[in-house]
Amino acid sequence: MLVEFGIVVLKAVVVLVVLLHFALFTIWVERKGSALIQDRVGANRASWFGFDLAGVLNTIVADPVKALLKEDFLPKGTSQLMHSLGPFLAVFPVLLSFAVIPLGPPILWDGREISLQLAELNAGVLYVFAMGSLATYGVVLAGWVSNNKFSLFGGLRATAQMISYEISMGISIIGVLVIYQTLDLPSIVEYQRGTFLGLPRWGVFLNPIGFILFFFSMMAETKRAPFDLPESESELVAGYLTEYSGMKFLLFWLGEFAEIVVASALIVVLFFGGWQLPYFDVASISSGGIQWGVILGVAAFMLKVAFFCVLQVVVRWTLPRFRYDQLMGLCWKIMFPVALVNLLATVVLVLSGFYA
User: Fold this and answer.
1) Lowest-pLDDT range, 50-54, 173-177, 327-331?
2) Residue-level pLDDT at 46
3) For site-directed labelling of 311, which of 6, 168, 227, 320 has its Cα 20 to 30 A away?
4) C-alpha angle with apex 26: 21 to 250, nearest 5 degrees?
5) What is the pLDDT of residue 288?
6) Contacts of 33 by beta carbon, 8 Å cutoff, 6+ apart
7) Rounded to whole angstroms, how far apart are CA atoms 173 and 211?
């Protein structure tokens, strides 16, 4: 009993460390990558004895310390409790959602099979979506309690945008779930083992239109450019973030980048085989008492997640921001009908035995 409890605690620590380190990595890529794309030097002010470690000191140490030392002001006529609840709701559900992501194949230790997943839920997909929906309340609450017209407009925009794109995202994912016939994330990864028509049996090849719709819907859910209308600086100052500073702003910041990591991990699990490698059975490799399959599987998963984190940063700093009518038109006039047609076609193919 004590051993089992220790394993759960250790897995919780590992999951939290992995998520936070990926968020820090994405922040560093954001600062240096945006500078590279815009032909700037990037974060380079903070240094120790002349070494800035390629901007790491700025992004990982100096910027958070600066934010923590700023004054935490409260707008007039606002409740401290409600004002603090917004950033908490924006980041806490995102951290919880990472608990069901499988990080690699199971480890065999002392006669036990230890899964690299903190919470083994057989409806993991629904759990991630439920936690993502809860994070929406933090943004909406921040816009409402800030007692500022720009914040309110930002909150309203976030509400409409996130609810709209949740619909197209949900329909796009139903197609691939119909193929897998399960909501359990490790079972979904296991299904993607082997090949299909000479290609890896990954969701991106089984349902490519579903992947494209899901990827752009997830970017809209994370409120990143070109979908960053809730905080567009040129129109709303900083939107729902206008009246936040110090630690509360830092929590919103952390929540945004943690969302990118969770979105990337979910894309990898649903459409890119999770910890599987193409044409290669990772789980079967073991030599000299060392479970190389576990090491390779975890490394493959981490590299795939890192790739999609970087890809989202590149997209943000490459494409211009939509107008609000274009944003909603893209969802309701293009992505929603295409998602419905794609779902119908997928169901027909499944019933005809195409994926068997």
Assistant:
1) 50-54
2) 66
3) 168
4) 80
5) 64
6) 310, 313, 314, 317
7) 8
pLDDT exceeds cutoff 80 at 334? yes
Q: How far apart are CA 260 and CA 306, in angstroms?
A: 10
- Closest among 320, 225, 220 to 263, alpha carbons compared: 220
Give yes or no for residue 287 having a pLDDT over 70: no
SS (H, E, C) the chain: CHHHHHHHHHHHHHHHHHHHHHHHHHHHHHHHHHHHHCCCCCCCCCCECCECHHHHHHHHHHHHHHHHHCCCCCCCCCCHHHHHHHHHHHHHHHHHHHHHCCCCCCEEECCEEECCCCCCCCCHHHHHHHHHHHHHHHHHHHHHHCCCHHHHHHHHHHHHHHHHHHHHHHHHHHHHHHHHCCCCHHHHHHHCCCEECCEECCHHHHCHHHHHHHHHHHHHHCCCCCCCHHHCHHHHCCHHHCCCCHHHHHHHHHHHHHHHHHHHHHHHHHHCCCCCECCECHHHCCECCECHHHHHHHHHHHHHHHHHHHHHHHHHCCCCCCCHHHHHHHHHHHHHHHHHHHHHHHHHHHHCCCCC
Q: What does the CA dihedral 300, 124, 227, 151 come to, rounded to 10 degrees?
A: -130
Give CA–CA dist 175/264, Å, rounded: 19
Residues shown for the chain: 356
50 phi-psi bin (left φ>0, alpha ψ -120 to 50, beta other): left
Q: For 288-329, how does the pLDDT look when each residue is reduced to its tens digit (9 = 90+)?
A: 667 777 888 899 999 999 999 999 888 888 888 888 888 888
Predicted confidence (pLDDT) per residue in 63-117, tens digit:
788 878 888 778 887 888 888 888 888 888 888 888 888 988 888 877 788 888 8
